Amino acid sequence: MRQLRAMVDVAEGQQALAAVARALDEHGLKRVLVDQRGTGAQREDVREQFWGWMVEPGRLDAIALVLDSELAGVEANMTAISRHLKLRAFTDRLEAEQWVRRTVPGRQTGFFGKLD
């Protein structure tokens, strides 16, 4: 598991996404759970950078987001639909883990978020 927090700017976001990509590649992961609870609101340009990274062809098979509110989840789910991503947002981490593990059987899942 890797610790995430709200990124200050696009440069910091790029560094964080590069670190996540390296971790995923090192372990051959194509499914990921991102726990963004308590990270605070992202700047719009950083949020767009995150979405752009996720839609790169071949990057990920499934993404589960754990967010602070149902409303944030609805927004994330609608954005995912519009970008043709296999992404689902949750407010419950256990539900998110169960969904992402079922999504593509036989693949390992990476977890990124607040350390418990």
Question: Which CATH architecture is right?
Answer: Alpha-Beta Complex
Based on DSSP secondary structure assignment, what is the total number of beta strands? 4
Radius of gyration: 13 Å
The largest β sheet comes out as:
4 strands, parallel
Uncertain segments are: none
What structural class should be given to the helix and strand makeup? Answer: alpha/beta
CATH class: Alpha Beta
Order of helices and strands: HEHEHEHE
Strand content: 15-25%
What is the residue-mean pLDDT, rounded to a whole number? 82
Strand order of the largest sheet: 3-2-1-4
What name is given to the CATH topology?
Protein-Tyrosine Phosphatase, Chain A
Q: What is the straight-line distance between the termini?
A: 10 Å
Number of helical runs? 4
What's the structural domain tally?
Answer: 1
Question: What does this protein look like?
Answer:
This protein is an alpha/beta fold. The chain has one domain: Protein-Tyrosine Phosphatase, Chain A. The protein has 4 helices and 4 strands; from the N terminus they run αβαβαβαβ. It has helices spanning 10-27, 44-54, 70-82, 93-103, and strands spanning 31-35, 62-66, 87-90, 109-113. A 4-stranded parallel sheet has the order 3-2-1-4, sandwiched between helices. Helix 1 (10-27) packs parallel to helix 2. The chain starts with 9 loop residues before the first helix and ends with a strand. The relative contact order is 0.24. The model has no long low-confidence stretch (mean pLDDT 82).
